[in-house]
Write a structure and sequence with these properties.
695 residues, alpha+beta, 7-stranded mixed beta sheet
Length: 695
């Protein structure tokens, strides 16, 4: 609203008094009342401008950012004071208005410096020389208030452009942000808590269920199920035992392991990904808004025509020609449009880090999805329950849910959710504990129930039914997990788990396909589950067992083919590909590296918002075109009327101010129109969709 108040200020505090000489009256009280009335909107606008500055994104709490904030506040104060002097001189005592000139020059110091560089150093001619000529001429002719009105447009335009184009260039990638700062290290046979930063190579670190692995290293003893999808993209937990390698930023779901440290800190695999990201030059921030380009391209023709007009028709007509150029009015209006749609996107649950994203989305023709955590949920789905001997499937599932009832890892949630959906009775278990291997043991009544992997069952020496081995091979081919349930040392059944497609995924994929977009799946997971997901969603292009660096290479290859790529991912392993894509999208709750790198965050973790993003980009494109017309058409009218007898500078400035208001109105219309109707779309009510069988 600060922008609208500024425009109103230009009319109420500027044009009302512009060109008018103060009435001679002996009533000093009336004059002071008029002065207070004229200064009221200036005071209010100073507060609004400072509020606008305070609300501008400030992502770096360093000295430079603080210095920028102080400079912006100082500029707002100088503007308010200089404008107040100009108005006071117009209302009370004309010579007083001359004192506003130093403030105007200070506010336009960058304009004059850039103009001097253009003349002396031969730099490319931009819009600053036009601003310098026009404002200096206006001040020379005594139009002090009107000059400050146009100065205020320049100042706000500068801040708006900075805000719309803002993308952080600092090293924001910290792969250890979500990691604990301490770990347990074995020293002289005793576990001692140490700062992770103090852990050295060859040290022995103990990691238990629910804890993050703080280092890269080799397992010396113990067994554990490790969730490493954030790093490798594998959808199912991976069993780790002596001799296996584990990586920092992965999570131990069950079990306990002793890890001999091989790499720590910046030497770990996940940290190297962060280093690659931080060293990547972000070329996207150099992209200009369309309005900036057309503004720059029309400067020289305007200067040339103005010089010709000066020789043929005199200085007033020449000034009207300069004033007909939209200068900062076009970028100001289109930047406001961008901020409007940033606001609309936020209301829909889509966080855009830059207004430039809206421009880039209009050219997207290819959408690439990471599989695990993006198209599928973290918690798997129970696909099948096998029972052996006299046992039945529901009893097997109920026993497993009783044992896993107090666990919080995804496998336990999947089993308990399925049991609850079937209305099975879950009994209280006692003395639940982990044994060596990926297994959980608990007592239910007089029975001892063991739940774990096939590997665990084999280590325990259980007799393995041939049907179970066949089932295990089938699950391996499909990329599914198999959980074994035994009762009193005898295998009773097995539970097959598979990835769960997000409820909204199918509808989102269909919508994107209807828009003619090319769709791809990239995954670090095995080929079988990746292919099955692609077939279920009717996506022709998929890539499996892809390393983080290879993901980025695939994005580069697509771009080399002339495609504009939007990549959606959520893990550390997606970060390099996110950085490489034309537009990068992540989900709230994903790894901090992914959300740091991505330009778009889907705040409610709902892929439906991706469709909203494409729709907003289309609406933004139309709004920018309409808004631009609201500014450009009056500018062309100004140029045409400049050569009409009787058309003066005051009328020209009034038309220019009208174009400002028209541009503001057009740019903010979508926000006004959607204010009552915009609500976050409800999540689909249907249950999560399991993957279809490969057959």
């Amino acid at each position: 609203m600060a922008l609208l108040e500024l425009a109103l200020l230009g009319f109420s505090g500027g044009f009302f008094y512009a060109g008018k000489k103060p009435e001679k009256t002996g009533n000093k009280r009336n004059a002071l009342a008029r002065l207070r009335a004229a200064l009221a909107p200036i005071k209010a606008h100073k507060q609004s401008l400072q509020t606008f500055i305070a609300e501008s994104p400030d992502q770096e709490a360093d000295e430079k950012a603080l210095a920028d904030q102080r400079e912006l506040k100082r500029t707002a104060s100088v503007f308010a004071g200089s404008t107040a002097i100009a108005v006071a001189g117009t209302v009370l005592y004309p010579p007083l208005a001359v004192l506003s000139v130093p403030g105007a020059v200070y506010l336009l110091r960058d304009v004059y410096v850039n103009t001097a560089d253009t003349v002396i150093k031969g730099k490319p001619v931009g819009v600053d020389p036009l601003m310098a000529i026009f404002t200096t001429s206006m001040l020379y002719q005594g139009h002090f208030v009107v000059s400050h009105f146009f100065i205020s447009l320049y100042l706000l335009n500068r801040q708006l452009i900075k805000r719309v184009k803002q993308e952080s260039k600092r090293n924001i990638i910290d792969v250890f942000r979500d990691q604990p700062s301490t770990a347990w290290v074995i020293i002289d046979g005793t576990e001692v808590e140490q700062q992770v930063s103090a852990i050295r190579e060859k040290a022995i670190v103990v990691v238990r269920a629910g804890e993050s692995v703080p280092v890269d290293g080799q397992v010396l003893e113990g067994f554990a199920a490790v969730d490493q999808h954030m790093l490798t993209g594998e959808s199912q937990p991976v069993e780790k035992s002596a001799g296996d390698t584990v990586f920092a930023c992965t999570v131990v779901l069950t079990g306990s392991i002793h890890v001999q440290v091989e790499k720590t800190g910046e030497e770990t695999a996940s940290a190297r990904i962060g280093q690659i990201l931080n060293s990547t030059v972000d070329f996207k921030t150099s992209k200009q808004l369309w309005a900036e380009k057309i503004t720059q391209q029309t400067v020289m023709p305007t200067l040339g025509l103005s010089a010709l007009t000066l020789a043929l028709a005199g200085p007033t007509t020449a000034l009207i020609v300069i004033n007909s150029h939209f200068r900062y009015r076009l970028t100001l209006a289109t930047s406001t449009s961008a901020l409007t749609f940033l606001n609309l996107a936020a209301q829909k649950g889509v966080l855009l880090k830059s207004g430039i994203i809206l421009e880039k989305m209009q050219n997207i023709d290819t959408v690439v999805f990471d599989k695990t955590g993006t198209l599928t949920l973290e918690t798997p789905n129970v696909a099948d329950v096998s029972a052996f001997g006299d046992w039945d499937a529901n009893t097997i599932l109920g026993l497993a849910a009783s044992v896993e009832g107090r666990q919080s890892h995804p496998v336990a949630k999947a089993i308990c959710n399925k049991a609850a959906a079937l209305g099975l009775q879950v009994e209280a278990s006692h003395e639940a504990s982990y044994q060596v291997g990926y297994g959980l043991v608990a007592s239910i009544g007089e029975q001892q129930i063991q739940v774990g992997s096939l590997r665990y069952a084999q280590q325990q020496g259980f007799a393995i039914p041939p049907a179970l081995l066949d089932k295990a091979e089938q699950c391996h081919q499909l990329g599914n997990s198999l959980i074994i349930v035994s009762v009193d040392g005898s295998i009773a059944g097995a539970i097959e788990l598979q990835a769960t497609i997000r409820p909204e995924t199918s509808a989102v994929i269909q919508t994107l396909r209807d828009q003619g977009l090319s769709l791809h799946i990239i995954s670090g997971d095995h080929p079988a589950p990746t292919k099955r997901l692609a077939e279920t969603l009717h996506i022709d292009n998929y890539h499996a067992e892809v390393l983080p660096e290879t993901k980025a290479e695939i994005i580069k290859q697509l771009q080399a083919e002339g495609r504009s790529v939007c990549y959606i991912g959520d893990g550390i392993n997606d970060a390099i590909a996110l950085k490489e894509a034309t537009v990068s999208v992540s989900l709230r709750g994903a790894s901090s590296v992914a959300t740091d790198t991505a330009e778009v965050i889907l705040m409610d973790q709902n892929l439906t918002r991706l469709c909203d993003l494409f729709q907003l980009a289309r609406e933004y494109d139309q709004n920018v075109k309409t808004t631009s017309q609201m500014v450009i058409i009056p500018s062309l009218m100004n140029l045409g009327l400049a050569f009409v007898p009787g058309y003066g500078l005051a009328a020209s400035m009034t038309l220019s101010a009208t174009s400002v208001l028209a541009g503001f109105g057009s740019s903010m219309l979508p926000l006004i129109r959607h204010q009552q109707t915009l609500q976050a779309l409800p999540l689909p009510s249907k249950q999560p969709e399991p993957l279809a069988d490969a057959s």
